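Sync notes, pocket subgroup
Present: LS, DG
LS reminded everyone that the earlier model was apo-only. Rerun requested with 6-O-phosphono-beta-D-fructofuranose included. Inputs:
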Amino acid sequence: MSIAQTPEWEALLAHRRDLEGATLRDLFREDPSRGETFTAEAGDMFLDYSKNLVTGETLRLLVALAERAGLRERIDAMFRGERINVTEDRAVLHVALRAPAGEVIEVDGQNVVPWVHEVLDRMSAFAERVRSGEWRGFTGKPIRSVVNIGIGGSDLGPAMAYEALRDFSDRSRAFRFVSNVDGTDVWEATRDLDAEETLFIVASKTFTTIETLTNAQSARAWLVGALGDEAAVANHFVAVSTNAEEVAAFGIDPGNMFEFWDWVGGRYSFDSAIGLSLMIAIGPAHFREMLAGFRQMDEHFRAAPFDRNLPVLLGLIGVWYGNFFGAETHAVLPYSQYLWKLPSYLQQLDMESNGKSIDLDGSPVDHQTGPIVWGTAGTNGQHAYYQLIHQGTKLIPCDFIGFARPSHEVGRHQDLLMANLFAQTEALAFGKTREQVQAEGVPPSQVPHRTFRGNHPTNTILATALTPRALGRLVALYEHKVFTQGTIWHIDSFDQWGVELGKALANRIVPELEAGSEPELAHDSSTNSLIRRYRRMRHAGGRT
Ligand code: F6P
C-alpha cells in the first residue's frame, strides 16, 4: 500500500485542514515557550524548528508516519549492510567510511571496516608525503598544486569540503577542482600552473565518466607537453576509483590508485578516498576529525528517538511542507562564506537521491518526492532573491545555518552576520502587519507593499564553529535527512538512472558534431536543426 493511502497520511491530511489559517504568530502566542521546546540537539549542533507550522500534534503524526514507513527498520538495514539500493542490488554503507576500526559491518559476509581503514592509512601516508615534499614530481620538485579532476560526487564533495575547511588547509599549496567538460575549466585550472609541481587526482567511481576522462586526457596532454616525457605521468597522476582495470587502461599505475567500493554512492563519497585532495589540503588529522563528526551524527541518527532526532526532524518537516502544503522547493542558507558551495553539494545529494517518481516496487508514486534544493551563502541572497521568499506567492521552507564563533574575528562582522540570520528568520516568521506599517506613518497607497504577511517557515541550525568535526556532522545531518525522506516516499535514494538517457544521447550526437561532411540526422526536427545550425556557426570562424 502506498504511504499516501495509509491512515497515518490521512490523519496528517485532516490535521493539515485543522491548521488551515493558523499562523506562526498564533502558534507563538498560544505557546510562548515553543522557542525552547521545539528544539533538538546532537553534540554541539542545535536545531530550532519552532518557526515551523507544526504543533505537538503535527510532530506526533509525522513520527507515526515515519514508523508506518518502517524508518527504524530501514535505518538498521542500512547500518547492517543490507542491499537497500535495490535497483543496483547494492548495500549502502557510507556509514562504514567513518566507523571506528574495531567495528564490524559486513557485506556478503566480509567485514568492510578493515578495508576502509587500510585505504585511510594509505591515503594518510600519501597525503603526508605530498605535504612534506617527499613526493616529488618528475623533475624532482615538490608538489605545489593539486588538481582534482572529477564530476558530480567526485567533485562537489571534495570541492565543497575544501572550501568549507580552507581555514584548516595548507595555504602554501594551490588546490583546484576541474569538473565541467567545457574545455575552459581545465584550461583555466592549468594555465598558470607549473607542470613540474602539479599533481592531478583523477577521481571517478566508475572511471568511465566521459567528462572526467576527457579532462584527464587533456591534463595529461598538458603535462606531457610541458615535461616532454610520457614517463612523467607516474609522478603526476594518481587515481581514486572502484575500477582498477579502467585506471590501468588510462595509464595510471594501479599502485597509485586509491580504492573505494560500489557500496559507497558517488554523492555520499567525499569521506572515502574521493576526499584525497581534501586530505592533502587539510592533513590526515583534520580529515579524521571530520570523520569523527560524521560518526557522531550517524550515532545520533541511529539512536535518538525520532522526535529528538535532527535528521529525522528535518526530513519529516520537509515531508510536511512538500506533501501537505505543496511546497516545491527548499532553500539552504548557510551564513558562512566558507560554506558557499554547500547548496550545490546538497543539490546533488538531495535531488539525485530523491528526484524519483517510481517507488521501490516499480510503481509510479502517487505523491510528491524530493524538493528542488537551492541557496546561497548569507547575506548575499538577502540582496538578491529573499524578496521573493518574503513577499512572493510561493511557500519556500528554508534552513538557516550559522556558527557562534567566526572563523576570523574581523571587526564587527560576526555579530552583523548573525544578526542578519536571526533577523531573517524573525521577519519571515512574523512579518509586519498592516497596523504596524500604518503606525509608522507610511502613506496609505504604500501600506500593502510594505506589509509582510510572514508565516514563512524556517529551521535554524546553530553550531559553535565551522571545524572539520562540525562539517562532518552537518553533512551527515543532510545525508540522513535525505534517507529519512526517501524511506517515507518508498523510493530508492541511491540510484540515478535519470542521468543515463542524456549521456547516451550525447554519445550519439558527438560524432554528428565532429563529422567532416554533413551527417545524416535522424533526431526530431528541433534537434536536427539545432545540430545543423551549430555546425554552420561553429565553422563560420571568428567571435562576433
Ligand atoms: O551521472 C551522475 C553520476 O553518476 C553521479 O551519480 C556521480 O557522482 C557522477 O556521475 C560521477 O561519476 P563517477 O564518479 O563514476 O565519475
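DG: DSSP finds 22 helices and 13 strands in the chain.
LS: The CA atoms of residues 343 and 408 lie 22 Å apart.
Action: DG to write up.
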